[in-house]
Each structure stands twice: as C-alpha cells, then as structure tokens.
C-alpha cells in the first residue's frame, strides 16, 4: 500500500491526458460540484478572494468555476502536464508545480480547496496537512476537501494502474480541524448529489 501511495505523482503524470478526457468537458455546463462550490464561494466575503487550489489538476471544472465567480486562483499540482493545461486554459492566474505536503507560500488565502486530491495522501500525511492549511489561511478563510467515508484505504485504477486513496475517520477529521482553528460548516458523507463524494467544508474561526 505504501508503494502505491508513492506512485501517485508518476501515475498522474503518465495518464494526465487520459484523466482529463475521462473527466470530460464542462464548458457551458454546470458541474455536479456546483452546489458545494457555491457554498464555498459564499464564505469568501471579498469581491475578489484569493483561493489556493491544491491538486488543481487541469483547472476544469473546479478552478474555472471559481474563476468565473471572481476568484483569483493559485493552483498547485505535482504533475507539470496538468499545470501546463491550467496555464493554457486559465491564463492570468498563478499555476505552480509542487507537492501540497511541502506548502510554503508568503501569503494567506481567503479560501483553500483540496478537491479529489487530499484523499490520495497516506494517513499520516493527511494529519500533517492540517497545520499547513491553518498556516496558509487568512482570518475567516474557508477550507473544503474531499475524503473517504471512513478510516481505511481504497484502491481504484487510472490507466489500468492501481490508484491509491486513504481516509481518516470522520471524528478524527473533526478533531484535526478544531485543533487547527477551523469550525465545520457543512459535512456530508457519500453525498448522492455529488457523485457519492464525502465532503468537508470548514471555516477558520
């Protein structure tokens, strides 16, 4: 399992185009994530909030949806191939190749998002992310991420190769959020309106 977790970056690099094709195009359409993204955006009181998108992928549909609603995006992804697509699709925003586990920005953000990316980290790496979220969050910042429904490891596939996912227990996520200054605003386990995702939306106290 540990080796499968270590292969995540290379896996997305090898299959970047296949992943994008499988994700499909959302141009001119409202993505299934829109309801949660609207809740996230509603917590960002500034007219042009700064949003940090961790594991931004190709920038669609998540980053594009937020850009179209007035957000200034800083996107981070470990696959240069994904960042190149972001730069081509959404110029004028900041796109960086990097690993979310080594975040070090001289900026605090009004919103932090780790959608369908955070759950690729092993358990201990997930625990270590919460102080990093806090360190990069402005006063009242929103934080939203997806997890698994319960503690454990689940394997999917991408391009015919094993794709690692991990999750902590819900009670531990709540404790980590609280310990790092966040209050849970909304949480749904296996949301049927959003592809069965387990979603956490929190706000810096």
From TrEMBL:
<dbReference type="InterPro" id="IPR050508">
    <property type="entry name" value="Methyltransf_Superfamily"/>
</dbReference>
<dbReference type="GO" id="GO:0008168">
    <property type="term" value="F:methyltransferase activity"/>
</dbReference>
<keyword id="KW-0808">Transferase</keyword>
<feature type="domain" description="Methyltransferase">
    <location>
        <begin position="51"/>
        <end position="131"/>
    </location>
</feature>
<dbReference type="InterPro" id="IPR029063">
    <property type="entry name" value="SAM-dependent_MTases_sf"/>
</dbReference>
<dbReference type="Pfam" id="PF13649">
    <property type="entry name" value="Methyltransf_25"/>
</dbReference>
<keyword id="KW-0489">Methyltransferase</keyword>
<dbReference type="GO" id="GO:0032259">
    <property type="term" value="P:methylation"/>
</dbReference>
<protein>
    <submittedName>
        <fullName>SAM-dependent methyltransferase</fullName>
    </submittedName>
</protein>
<dbReference type="InterPro" id="IPR041698">
    <property type="entry name" value="Methyltransf_25"/>
</dbReference>
């Amino acid at each position: 399992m540990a080796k499968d977790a270590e292969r995540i970056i290379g896996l997305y690099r090898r299959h970047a185009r296949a992943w994008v094709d499988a994700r499909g195009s959302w141009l001119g359409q409202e993505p299934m994530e829109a309801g949660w993204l609207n809740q996230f955006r509603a917590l960002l009181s500034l007219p042009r909030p700064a949003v940090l998108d961790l594991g931004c992928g190709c920038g669609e549909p998540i980053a594009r949806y937020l850009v179209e609603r007035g957000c200034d995006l800083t996107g981070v992804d470990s696959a240069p191939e994904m960042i190149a697509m972001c730069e081509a699709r959404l110029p004028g925003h900041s796109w960086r190749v990097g690993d979310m586990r080594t975040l070090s920005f001289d900026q605090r953000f009004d919103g932090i998002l780790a959608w369908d990316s955070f759950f690729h980290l092993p358990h201990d790496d997930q625990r270590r992310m919460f102080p990093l979220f806090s360190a990069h969050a402005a006063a009242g910042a929103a934080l939203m991420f997806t997890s698994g429904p319960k503690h454990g490891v689940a394997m999917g596939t991408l391009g015919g190769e094993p794709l690692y996912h991990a999750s902590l227990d819900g009670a531990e996520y709540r404790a980590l959020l609280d310990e790092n200054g966040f209050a849970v605003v909304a949480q749904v386990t296996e949301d049927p309106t959003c592809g069965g995702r387990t979603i956490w939306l929190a706000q810096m106290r």
